[in-house]
Amino acid sequence: MFAQWLFPFFNMSHLETDLLSHKKQGPPPFDLITQRRAIPFDEDQFRAEMEDVSLMRELVGVFMEDSQTLLSEACRALAQQDASSLHRAAHALKGMVGNYSAAPALAAVSLLTESARSENLDRAAELLPRTVEEFSLLSLALQHFLKRL
Amino acid sequence: MAGLLHPRILVAEDVRAISMRISHVLQGRGYEVEIARDGEECLERIGVQRPDLLILDLMMPRLNGIEVLKRLREDPATQDLAVIVCTANDFSADMEQVHELGVVGVIIKPFDQHALAETVDRCFNREIAKAPLSHLPTAPTAIFAPKVDVNRSRIILWGTRGSIPVSGARFLRHGGNTSCMEYACGNDHLIFDAGSGIKDAGDALAAHGPRHLHLFITHTHWDHIQGFPFFTPIYLPNFEITIYGERGFGKNHESLLSGQLDRDYFPIQRSKLAAKVNFRFLDDDPVVIGDIKVTHEFTHHPGATVAFKIEHHGRTIVYAPDNEFLHGYLGSPQRISRNSEIVIPQEPVVEFISGADLLLHEAQYLSDEYSRKIGWGHSNLANACVLAKLTGVKQWTVIHHDPAHDDAYLDNKLTLTRQILQDIGCPTQVVHGHDGMVEYL
Questions:
Q1: Minimal CA–CA distance to B391: which of B330, B336, B338?
Q2: CB contact, 8 Å: A1 with chain B?
Q3: What ipTM describes this predicted complex?
């Protein structure tokens, strides 16, 4: 037990809990997100590119479900030092987030993908927490966006 | 394929967000769309459904897109199937192989849905389907892809909160961990203070394997040492940690840091630490680690508190999280100069900071708060602005945020800081530090 507590970075359930805890609490006021150093996603661009409310609703739902699964896979792969699986998960995350006009998350996961592709797991270990953070913030922003759709 | 009423398109794509978008676009144009989630399912569906067009992702589970394409071309029944590759993989070697295997189009993700629709529409008008390979659109081959040089020296702020950790949505952007900063360059990692932020620092450093770490303690107030028992490297064999601190006025940094591992406070005692942990007192000589020089100077704060100066590669960084500059002064910053009587007692620290490229320094209180907290060891915002001006630092990153100040409050405070600096004619660039902030130097 102590080892798990001491090394939460390698504990996938910790990261999942972080993401889920935001869901339980509900999104904070949107100005907290928009005033951040970088906006999690460009709502105007997202609306312009998708052009369809039902598609946007579906995409937000898919993000909520799939991003957590893929982030968990990435965490598991890193904990097992499995560069190939990490690359596959990071690549899928990159492909997914490319649909949400979410520059900060895309930038973070692109670096992670590149480090996994080059099997630089030390670098990946540095980049994964940032990627999780960006996806968590994007998730909050999308939840709030969904309410206003 | 022209003239088909509802052409059948199979989309082989493992990322649901992408297949959903592609389906939406194509169904809206009258196409029948089916989805396959991996390479093997793709081949199975082609055998059963005989689609008119395949939109193929290259990187898929079970069987990748290149292999799918090879098998299709080997099978007489599918060797002429029109294929559009849709991929984020823009490596030229893959693209050459894709074109050799014969495709009618390549779309690079993230894609524009109008471009996708146009490519598919043209395919069914026979404008592209029968075109020779040499006329096919080519993927970019010379992409400018700059990368962050992680070997450059950098500052990582692991904890930027003062006094006590905070959490919750109101503190999301600045973070809630107490003081901890890392200066990293190559294999050298210097950590400053052991507030709760040192836990994240330790987890990150532990992942890199055994090494010699250097931990500098500005002073032993709770918010600068409370994370030490949670600093992962102290429990790992083959790590060596040298901890530098002042002698103090009674208890020194060794007794106070180790004291947190007392049985009454914590389940693991010092004797159980697996790393080699050394304690050293700071003296007048600089600490030299590789080509990094670290010196210190006392600041104005209760107890034996110091600021640290890092000199490396011609740059100077000063870390001074706790310093009550111009003790008790609540007047206008316009009235203060280097020769002012109130500055003279603090001349040593002013001189120590002067000319730094980067100053990490607090500005914990606004004047209404400071008037009630004089002598607590923290600066009034306006007085901290005076310090930036008198020392001529190029850049100031504000740290040690008050636990009562949430994100919205700090945003306003930063605006006010810039206004004061402008009003007193100080050109220093100021930003607020936040947990996880990385500054390459």
A1: B338
A2: no
A3: 0.73
Q: Which residue has the tokens 């609306």?
A: A47
Q: Which of B272, B208, B204, B210 is nearest to B238 (CA)?
A: B210
DSSP symbols for B62-97: SS-HHHHHHHHHHSTTTTT-EEEEEES---HHHHHH
Nearest to A146 by CA among A69, A68, A53: A53
Residue of B nearest to A45 (CA): B112
Residue B108, number of CB atoms within 10 A of its CB: 17
d(CA B13, CA B15): 6
CB contact under 8 A, B14 and A92: yes
d(CA B112, CA B78) in angstroms, rounded, equals 28
With beta carbons under 8 A apart, name residues in chain B contacting A32. 169-170, 172-173, 407-408
The C-alpha atoms of residue A74 and residue A132 are separated, in whole angstroms, by 10
- Interchain CB distance below 8 Å, A32 and B169: yes
Nearest CA in chain A to B432: A37
Q: What angle do CA A85, A91, A94 make, to 5 degrees?
A: 145
- The verdict on a CB contact (< 8 Å) between A32 and B147 is no
Interface contact A88-B434, CB threshold 8 A? no
Chain A to chain B Cβ contacts (< 8 Å) = 96
CA distances from B423 to A107, B13, B325, B387, B430 (A): 37, 58, 19, 14, 14
pLDDT digit string (tens) for chain B, length 441 residues: 545 567 899 999 999 999 999 999 898 888 899 999 999 999 999 988 889 899 999 888 888 888 998 898 888 888 888 899 888 765 555 677 777 788 888 888 778 888 888 888 887 774 443 433 333 444 445 567 777 776 789 999 999 999 999 999 999 999 999 999 999 998 899 999 999 999 999 999 998 888 899 999 999 999 999 999 999 999 999 899 999 999 876 778 888 999 999 999 999 999 999 999 999 999 889 999 999 999 999 999 998 899 999 999 999 999 999 999 999 999 999 999 998 989 988 899 999 999 999 999 999 999 999 999 999 999 999 999 999 999 999 999 999 999 999 999 999 999 999 999 999 999 999 999 999 999 988
Nearest CA in chain A to B151: A123
Cβ contact B82:B123 at 8 Å: yes
Minimal Cβ distance to B235: which of A6, A66, A122: A6
**How many C-beta neighbours within 10 Å does residue B90 have?**
16
Contact B18 A99 (CB under 8 A): yes
Q: Which one-letter amino acid corresponds to residue A128?
A: L
Contact with chain B for residue A94, Cβ under 8 A:
yes
Q: Which of A1, A4, A5, A7 is most worth mutating to test chain B (most B CB atoms within 10 A of its CB)?
A: A7
